[in-house]
Design goal:
Elements: H1 2-5, H2 28-42, E1 56-60, H3 64-75, E2 79-84, H4 92-95, H5 104-115, E3 120-123, H6 130-139, E4 142-145, E5 164-165, H7 166-175, E6 185-189, H8 193-204, E7 208-213, H9 224-232, E8 236-239, E9 241-249, E10 252-266, E11 272-276, E12 282-285, E13 288-291, E14 308-309, E15 312-315, E16 329-331, E17 336-338
Parallel strand pairs: 1-2, 1-4, 2-3, 4-16, 5-13, 6-7, 6-13, 7-8, 15-17
Antiparallel strand pairs: 9-10, 10-11, 10-12, 14-15
Helix pairs in contact: 7-8
Amino acid sequence: TCARVCPDAELCQGACVMNKMAEKPIELGRLQRFATDHLVEQGIKPFTAGTPTGKKVLVVGSGPAGLSAAAELAKAGHAVTIWERRELAGGLSTYGIITLREPVEVAQREVDMVRELGVQIETNTSLKNAEQLHDVAKHYDAVFLGLGLGAVPMLDIPGSEYILDGLHYISEVKTNAPQAPEPRNVVVIGAGNTAIDAATTARTQGAQATIAYRRTAAEMTAFEDEYLFAVKAGINFVFLANPAEVLTTDGNVTGLRCTRMTLGPADAQGRRQAIPSGEADLVLACDTVIAAIGQEKFDSETGFELPLNSGYLDVAKDLALAAAELDNVFAGGGGNRRKGGGPL
């Protein structure tokens, strides 16, 4: 997965001092992809299970965090069971990474590598409530929560019921193509990497795609390489446009009305605020509107009555939860925040 989706152009390669010299950095992403694909093709197993310790661990969630935790625990000799609520294991790698970057088959090969370490993966199995969490904590030596985050939040605008969840849309096209929407003209709300992925997915289906964003290109959270990739793929960008209403006729989407914005003073995080410009509204014609504006965090119900920090599970530096009665329950991955604030 890292060999295919890690933003090496921004991180290792992008930050390499070789960029300031005549030579360019080694293409680490391509090198890693070649090496890992070679292992699979040759049937080489890079990891082995450790000597059994007699301890057993439950991992909830089989995304990147859950699989990584399970693999390391198995290498240490512990007996590991993974619960995955969906039909296929792999989490974001299986369902949320567009096929162009990581086909389902590749994500499943990674899952199989973890299975080969003796990890038991039970799909269509979920952790339902706080009571069940306390119960399994008594029956396992440790529990690791790799729950990730939730769906894209709903926009509070007229016609929001017609808006598709960007991650769900990508998932349907990738894993359930016959039942997936088949748009002809898409407007994607947001300007992060998921927004670009949703627009790219629409382009692979033959649709026109436009990304609407209330700020400018300078404030986009998507990586620059992703933005340039999207432009080359024929995706249009409309900046300083804030969604105001999904327009419909007889239950069919016909467009997205946007308020024209301008940039005001910077907010507490240093980002310039988007404020209405007073100009006439803009209407973007489309038959599908997709939202990719981040993911819902935990609340008192979805957080299994665990301590939260700004909507994330609150963990200490050792990933232990800040709940004394659950001292053998740990958490990691995208749905968690270290005690004190910094994201994992």
